[in-house]
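Page 47, continued from p. 46.
Same chain as before, 397 aa.
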Amino acid sequence: MNWLKKYIQHIKPHFEKGGRFEKLHSAFDAFETFLFVPDTTTSAGSHIRDAIDMKRAMVMVIIALIPPLLFGVFNTGYQYFVAHGKVFNQSFFFADAFLFGLIKVLPVIIVTYVTGLGIEFIMAQVRGHEVNEGFLVTGMLIPLIMPPDIPLWMVALATAFAVFFGKEIFGGTGMNIMNPALLARSFIFFAYPGFISGSQVWVSGMTETAGLVDGYSGETALGQLSAGATAIIDGFGREIPFRDLFFGLIPGCIGETSKLAILMGALFLLITGIASWRIMLSVFAGGFCMGLIFNLIAANSYMQLPAHYHLVLGGFAFGAVYMATDPVSGAQTAEGKIVYGLLIGALIIAMRVFNPAYPEATMLTILLMNVFAPLIDHLVVQGNISRRLKRGKIKVH
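Result:
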């Protein structure tokens, strides 16, 4: 890589002040710092020096997203062939499913990055700032929380809304108060609900009625439960075992179905110290405890669903691992992270049960708690100050 570094250093003066391409300095700096760690050092003030910078942290998150991404590509093809009456390892194989899924998923990823990074580069040039690195992760999260049949123009529109109104209007990466990827999904949910809800969008090819097996249903597990179902069934009316719910061979968003793949990403994030274990663990704990409470009440079939099933349904696990742990929009204090996570987990399950019109409550719950995260941290800090003041009082006799 020395030859590439030498070449970059050779052309760098052209992009600095006084050079022919000085107006493109932000774009050049973005590519340079993405390829190589910046050699700049601090000259004043107190700073914590670390071997990892923001871009490297973002790359770590992208690596953690690879397991759900790869499984999502396979599952997209798998659900397509199954919906057309094919049998795995007989009439179609792993390579067939993966190739079909790749053809469907890759354009969504490309459109997301082109749209989002295009806006990021334009805003950086207008402001004369460096290109924010946060979209490296956001650009991968957005496709993974979309249905396989989502129109590409809709992905571009939602991405533009999320980047501009969710990040740039607040000042860019590190200044946003809500998770941009979830804003993209919420934009489609409220603007074009028919493309992200119902039973016709979760299996690629469902909108193409020709060739589909008669009577096949692509309804998700949460959609069935919200409609009053007492058991979770597949497209052919057979009950889905917990094993399939965990491994992810079910209809759903591209990256949210396989809990095994998500847990692999979670383990990587925890080992590298990128994500907060307090938030991650407390979200699962909050959801499980709320599920147990509903089991005790057991007023309807949804409340009777075993508590551990809630953790593998919909986007609960994906949201707990990749969305709730967002270091910008989440709580910052140690105690606040626990309260923040517990509330997210509990509210997701409560909203699912009490609001059957919106079975997938993960998105709105996390966005809601993003807004309340500063208040949680404020209360924690004020509580700590009050306790310390009480300990510091001196009794005068």
